[in-house]
């Protein structure tokens, strides 16, 4: 099997197809995602898209994988509150971006009725939570939070209110909401709520 060159034609095709997939999801939702339209928008052959991805769910899965890989790395400020604030503000910026919020809404909607899309979404969040969990582990080592604090639960507690605000209330979270989510998770972690 031929080795794929990073940055070569394969990488350019993938980037183009994933950009088109994200655009179409944001514009029309998962139910209207069409492989032929993705190929047309990406300016690649239909057979390339059908052969490489085959289904709309495979496209969404690859898009989420790419988004997880491209997302900004964890901040390490030396303070759990500041780390959680950085995480919350990253989530807030993503959810307040018109394209990104529409994209996440479409993917989350797809995940409610398609198990493969749900698996892809869970994989995305596992990757992102695992990226940020070490800041809680370091806080345990520094004595900021009790031993046995579940780092994954702390990180989930930061982003959950922001997604709730966007998806349930329909309000786009602002910086104040992000900071409040970080402070709340921090106070709960210090009080031992996540042990």
Automatic annotation (TrEMBL):
Location of the HTH tetR-type domain: 11-71
PROSITE patterns with a match to the protein in the record: HTH_TETR_2 (PS50977)
Protein's UniProt name: Transcriptional regulator
Keyword Transcription assigned: yes
Positions of the DNA-binding region: 34-53
Gene Ontology MF terms: DNA-binding transcription factor activity; transcription cis-regulatory region binding
Keywords, alphabetical: DNA-binding, Transcription, Transcription regulation
Coiled-coil blocks: none
Cross-referenced InterPro entries: Homeodomain-like_sf (IPR009057), HTH-type_TetR-like_transc_reg (IPR050109), HTH_TetR (IPR001647), Tet_transcr_reg_TetR-rel_C_sf (IPR036271), TetR_C (IPR011075)
């Amino acid at each position: 099997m031929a080795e794929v060159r990073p940055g070569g034609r394969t990488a350019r095709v993938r980037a183009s197809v994933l950009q088109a997939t994200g655009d179409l999801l944001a514009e029309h939702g998962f139910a209207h995602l069409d492989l032929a339209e993705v190929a047309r928008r990406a300016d690649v052959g239909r057979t390339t898209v059908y052969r490489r991805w085959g289904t709309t769910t495979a496209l969404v899965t690859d898009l989420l994988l790419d988004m997880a890989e491209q997302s900004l790395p964890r901040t390490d400020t030396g303070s759990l509150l500041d780390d959680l604030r950085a995480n919350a503000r990253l989530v807030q910026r993503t959810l307040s971006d018109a394209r990104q919020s529409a994209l996440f809404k479409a993917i989350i909607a797809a995940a409610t009725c398609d198990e493969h899309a749900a698996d892809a979404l869970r994989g995305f969040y596992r990757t992102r939570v695992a990226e940020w969990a070490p800041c809680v582990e370091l806080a345990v080592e520094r004595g900021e939070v009790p031993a046995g604090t579940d780092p994954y639960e702390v990180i989930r507690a930061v982003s959950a209110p922001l997604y709730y605000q966007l998806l349930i209330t329909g309000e786009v979270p602002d910086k104040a909401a992000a900071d409040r989510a970080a402070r709340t998770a921090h106070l709960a972690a210090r009080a031992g709520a996540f042990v």
